[in-house]
Structures are given as C-alpha cells and as structure tokens.
Amino acid sequence: MSARITVGGIKRKLLVLLLAASALATLSWHVKNQVTLEQLVAQEMHMRELIAQRPWRSFGIGLAIYTVASLVPGTSGKSVVIGWLYGFWQGVFLIILGLTTAALTIFHLSRYVFRGWIEHRYGSFLAALNRHLKKEGAFYLLTLRMAHFPFSIINLASGASRVRGRTFCWTTSLGLLPGTAVFAYVGVRLPSLDELVKNGPGSLIDAPLITALAVSAVFPFVFRALARKLGLLKDADSDLPIVTR
Fold this sequence. Notes:
It is built from 12 helices and no strands. The protein has helices spanning about 1-35, 35-55, 55-70, 80-85, 90-110, 115-120, 125-135, 140-145, 150-160, 165-190, 195-200, 205-230. The protein is about 80% helix and about 0% strand. It folds into 2 domains: about 1-35; about 40-240, no CATH class. The two termini are about 40 Å apart. By secondary structure, the protein is mainly α.
C-alpha cells in the first residue's frame, strides 16, 4: 500500500515538474522571440505612469499581489521589486502591510484549521517556541523576525503556540521593518530599464546600492550572533535558514 502511494506521489511530482518545465520553456521562447527590450522599457514606463497617476488604486493592486505572493513560500525578491516600482516610503508601507496581512492569515489558519498537523510537523520547534515565549515573552518572537528566520514556519508555529494574535501582529510588523527598509532601499537604488539600456551595466555600479546589498546579506548573521551572545537564541535555533522577502 505504501509503495503504491509512493509511486503515485512520484508520478504527481514528475507531472508537476513536466508542466512547470513546459511553462518555463514556453515563456522563455515568447520572451526571446516575441518581446523586445523596447517593449519591456515601454511597459515599465507605463507602469510607473499608472502608479503616479492613480496612486491609491496602484497601491491597492500592488498590496493585493504582494500579499498573495507572500502566502507562497520561497518567493524571494518581492520587496526589492516593490521598492524599485513604488519608491522607498510607499514601498516600505506596502511591504510591511502585505507581509503582516499574509502572516496573520497563516497564523489564524494554523490556529483554527491546521493546528493538529502543525503540532505533528513542527513539534520540536513549537515546544522550543513556547518555552522561549514563557521566558522572554514577545521579545523572543521579535528576535526571530529580525533575524530573518523562515517567514512561513514562524507564522505556522506561532498560530499553534500560546502567543496572542495582537502580540504576533505587532512583533511581525516591527520585527520585519529593518530588513524591509534595506530591501526597499536596494530596489530604489536599482536603475530603471530605460537607464540600464542607455547607460549599460555600468549603471549598476552604485556605491549606495552595493552598500545596501552588503548590509542585506550581512545583517541577519550579525543579528543572530548578537542574539546568541545575549542568550536570546540557542545554537539549535540558529540552524534554521535565513530567508529574504
């Protein structure tokens, strides 16, 4: 019985992989043969004009897209794109609101729908989280956010933990703020496609951009090391991967 289930699971994974590969191949062919660089530049300029002319509508559309994308694990780089299109302050607000909304959605699904599965799947992490919450309180959850621990795992485990919903909400918003500001700034410093076409790859050589990229790469490791030194994180906690948004 288990062998049959295993074979069925492999077939489904192969089918999904085949469909994904076909979609990527079709998209690559379309971009290569049907879409010119001039068309991409025109589309980008059109998007920027729409954001400037209809800021509230554009913000709402961007927020909806970002929130839905944040519900899917592994969709990194979104914050840089938002900063690139919307600018720093509007981008930061959009990202924080989208991430917090997505986090609360997963949090409540975990608490009221998938709690049993979460306790089984992340039992050891959940037990450690409850111990730390009892000892350090909300500050521990804030530390996990600032240290860029996996977004979805924290949301799922927190939903099955004893933490209050409002505590989870404010620690999520505040804890994600430093990293969000860095990623949005990276997006702001990136050249537009028009600038890239006119000035070439040299337009990417920008001291503030390089500095922001270095900070975004180093900050989570530095913060984790500091948190371990202060006793907020144990070595086992630090084994979880660092993620970007």
